[in-house]
Amino acid sequence: MTIFLSEDDVAYFDALTKRAAGAAAPRRQTIIFRDGSEPRRNDCHANAARRAAEDPAVVPVHGWLIETNHGGFRRLAAHSLLRDGAGTLIDITPIDQEGLAFIEHEGSAADFFALLPRFNSITWPPPQML
User: Fold this and answer.
1) Gap between the Cα atoms of 1 and 122, Å rounded
2) Domain ranges in the chain?
3) DSSP per residue over the chain, as a string?
4) Please, which domain of life does this record's source organism belong to (predicted)?
5) pTM score, two decimals?
6) At a CB cut-off of 8 Å and minimum separation 6, what does 45 contact?
7) pLDDT digit string (tens) for 78-95?
8) Contact 124/13 with Cβ under 8 angstroms?
9) Residues 110, 77, 47, CA angle at the centre, nearest 5°?
């Protein structure tokens, strides 16, 4: 499958990956929602929104997990987590790989979610750009 990239797409992911050196792994936290259920695997956006609705001390944060970083290529996966009042990033979604660094999306939540139909995950730079 070929992904067509606009100039805006290229500028966004170039700027995002330039900030990768400052990315850090969020703190993992196990939580239980008010109804007694646990956050669902592979449902980070809903998990973060639900927790923020239940706990006014946290806000959702959207961005990208760096799943791999090999030879100048980064595999990025869209992800949502939480920020507490002290500024600590907290990840409540169960995940297989621990310690993945997170790059925060700069812009609105609407802009972030507009990317997801085409870029739920992406290798950057795409091999076809080299």
Assistant:
1) 12
2) 7-129
3) -PPP--HHHHHHHHHHHHTGGG-BPPEE-----TTS--PPTT-HHHHHHHHHHH-TTEEEEEEEEEEEEETTEEEEEEEEEEEETT--EEE-S--SS-S--EEE--S-HHHHHHHTTT-SEEEES-GGG-
4) Bacteria
5) 0.93
6) 60, 62, 78, 80, 113
7) 999 999 999 999 999 999
8) yes
9) 60
